[in-house]
């Protein structure tokens, strides 16, 4: 009998860490991780096994396929938006081909054990592209179907993979005689920028907010690469994990979409800095604008409409901006750096 497991790709990354922390605390012990880098002690102590390797390595995925019965895949591995702009072809390989490999693994597994495999895909506000700052200011909270004109390789990859997931879930090989509908139970959330108290992001464009906060907590200088009025939605890592778990627990019959917006708060970079200064009055931050990264932020919406997530699966964030700082970021970040 193959052992039943839950697979997390990109397990050593920010959301991977958050997921491992939360699933382990809930008593889930059959987690298998994959990451390009060896997992750190936090992750290895909370997982059954962590494989070092690439999601592009079909032999590695084939070994997983043979060895385990996969119940669910949380596919977190990706090259984020800033990094992807430096290596668009590699980004496409990792973000699209890698996702295709995992969707295929999910389908093979579901066909072999005869039960649907749940597949979680973290999409992003990067799928949106608003044409100008004037439009960005005017449109306010945008719905899932609006402004899907991504201006980054990462955004293009995420948008396309949402469609791939839909294809695997609903239309896979529709000309064949065997019925595969529903075997891959694909669900996706378009995340805003995520702020964790425990980890720092790498290679994203929303990184300016968490970088500012962590630098202040460490007493270090920070150059913020966007203007003070730059505004996109954010949420805490705790809320991001809550959302993933809530969406994945919801019976499929209650979901009217495969892809959902969610949001929590959307301060400008200047408002975020003011909040940081309430707790770290000495925060040493200069606004040193990187025009290229700024233009990516300008193409992302100020706000998103998450009405459908609220209706279908009861989405509601724990943290608004004030509570994010007072209840999560500040207590945890202080204890993190005090213990270093
Ligand atoms: C990035 O900045 O690339 C990500 C995202 C918004 O998806 N954090």
What does this protein structure show overall?
Helix content is 45%, strand content 18%. With 340 residues, the chain is an alpha/beta fold. It has one domain: 3-Layer(aba) Sandwich (Rossmann fold), CATH 3.40.50. Strands 3-2-1-4-5-7-11 form a seven-stranded parallel β-sheet, sandwiched between helices. Residues 80-81, 124-126, 154, 191, 193, 204-206 line the site of 2-amino-3-ketobutyric acid.
The description of the largest β-sheet is: 7 strands, parallel
Which range does the strand content fall in? 15-25%
CATH topology: Rossmann fold
Record the strand order, biggest sheet. 3-2-1-4-5-7-11
Ligands and ions found: 2-amino-3-ketobutyric acid
Low-confidence sequence ranges = none
Gap from first CA to last CA: 44 Å
What's the CATH superfamily, by name? Answer: NAD(P)-binding Rossmann-like Domain
Say how many strands there are: 13
Write the layout of secondary structure elements.
Blueprint: E1 3-9, H1 14-25, E2 31-35, H2 41-44, E3 49-52, H3 58-67, E4 68-75, H4 81-86, H5 88-113, E5 117-124, H6 133-139, E6 141-142, H7 153-171, E7 184-191, E8 193-195, H8 208-218, E9 221-224, E10 234-236, H9 237-249, E11 259-261, H10 269-279, E12 284-287, H11 291-299, E13 303-304, H12 307-313, H13 321-338
Parallel strand pairs: 1-2, 1-4, 2-3, 4-5, 5-7, 6-13, 7-11, 8-10, 9-12
Helix pairs in contact: 1-9, 3-5, 5-7, 8-10
């Amino acid at each position: 009998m193959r052992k039943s497991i839950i697979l997390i790709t990109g397990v050593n990354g920010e959301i991977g860490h958050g997921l491992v922390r939360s699933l382990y605390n809930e008593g889930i012990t059959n987690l298998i991780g994959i990451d390009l880098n060896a997992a750190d002690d936090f992750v290895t102590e909370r997982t059954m096994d962590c494989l070092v390797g690439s999601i592009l390595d079909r032999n590695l995925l084939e070994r997983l396929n043979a060895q385990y019965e996969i119940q669910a895949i949380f596919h977190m591995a990706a090259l984020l938006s800033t990094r992807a702009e430096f290596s668009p072809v590699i980004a496409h390989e990792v973000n699209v081909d890698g996702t295709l490999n995992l969707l295929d693994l999910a389908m093979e597994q579901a066909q072999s054990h005869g039960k649907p495999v749940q597949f979680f895909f973290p999409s992003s506000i990067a799928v949106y592209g608003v044409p100008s700052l004037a439009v960005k200011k005017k449109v306010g909270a945008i719905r899932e179907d609006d402004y899907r004109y991504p201006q980054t390789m990462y955004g293009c990859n995420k948008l396309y993979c949402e469609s791939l997931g839909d294809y695997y879930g609903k239309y896979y090989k529709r000309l064949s005689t065997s019925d595969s509908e529903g075997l891959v139970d694909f669900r996706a959330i378009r995340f805003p920028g995520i702020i964790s108290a425990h980890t720092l992001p790498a290679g994203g464009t929303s990184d300016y907010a968490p970088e500012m906060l962590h630098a202040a907590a460490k007493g270090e200088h920070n150059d913020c690469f966007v203007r003070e009025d730059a505004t996109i939605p954010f949420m805490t890592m705790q809320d991001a994990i809550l959302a993933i778990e809530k969406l994945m627990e919801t019976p499929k019959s209650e979901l009217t979409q495969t892809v959902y917006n969610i949001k929590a708060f959307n301060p400008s970079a200047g408002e975020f800095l003011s909040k940081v200064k309430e707790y770290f009055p000495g925060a040493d931050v200069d606004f040193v604008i990187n025009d290229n990264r700024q233009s990516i932020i300008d193409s992302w919406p100020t706000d998103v409409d998450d009405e459908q997530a609220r209706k279908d699966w009861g989405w509601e964030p724990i943290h608004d901006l004030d509570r994010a700082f007072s209840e999560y970021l500040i207590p945890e970040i202080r204890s993190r750096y005090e213990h270093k």
